[in-house]
């Protein structure tokens, strides 16, 4: 972390150095207090989901800013083909990393880097008041740009199509790409077997991504698998995944609601004590005189 950038980016300080970073995904809750639950639980990252949500950039800003100040690194997955203007707003307002979905070629990856980096590496418009720098303006502009490029604008690319796999080495070789994230749901679906992470062709694809990340010193990330502990053990401890999505706020709410009903239903005996009025009501007939 530099003197310019005030907040830790765990993708660089932990994941790239070999430690597993666990991300809490928010896609529905907008109240920034949810960040405290992620912090208390021990997550290192907050993944603000804008591809599969209705978040506005203002709502994302509230969440990313809260994450920075809570000491959790905020990264944002932007919508597919959202454009440079959208990416710039997300970064200017607090994201310390941006994840781009559906990357298939090295040219796609290069375009993602161009959107995230200030010149000379990229084409991002220069704005001195950066959230990661505490909105300060008391620094040389080039110093700010260099430091934000280096530590506060990580680039992640999603590998979630069969056509991406032959290109993963070239994608990982792109200067400025920090992380390749396999989207388990989309990749397995594109292989014709949604959610079937044990199929040999799916496993071979992950091995190819792992080899590319090791060869080019990039972070290997995983999204879309939360409960298969054997699979997670394999990708983390054998393939070298160092960024993994832990769970999603909406999934946790859904699971919690279901568990609550299950508990209450297990002691509910009220239906046994209410008389069956069905036969009585069934016998009631209404006669209408003809006009």
UniProtKB/TrEMBL annotation:
The keyword Repeat is assigned to this record: no
Record-annotated membrane-spanning stretches: none
GO MF entry, a single one: kinase activity
Keywords from the named record: Kinase, Lyase, Metal-binding, Pyruvate, Transferase
Residue ranges constituting the HpcH/HpaI aldolase/citrate lyase domain according to the UniProt record: 30-217
Claim: Lyase is one of the keywords in the record: yes
Annotated family: Belongs to the HpcH/HpaI aldolase family.
Name this polypeptide is given: Pyruvate/Phosphoenolpyruvate kinase-like domain-containing protein
Species whose genome carries this gene: Chaetomium fimeti
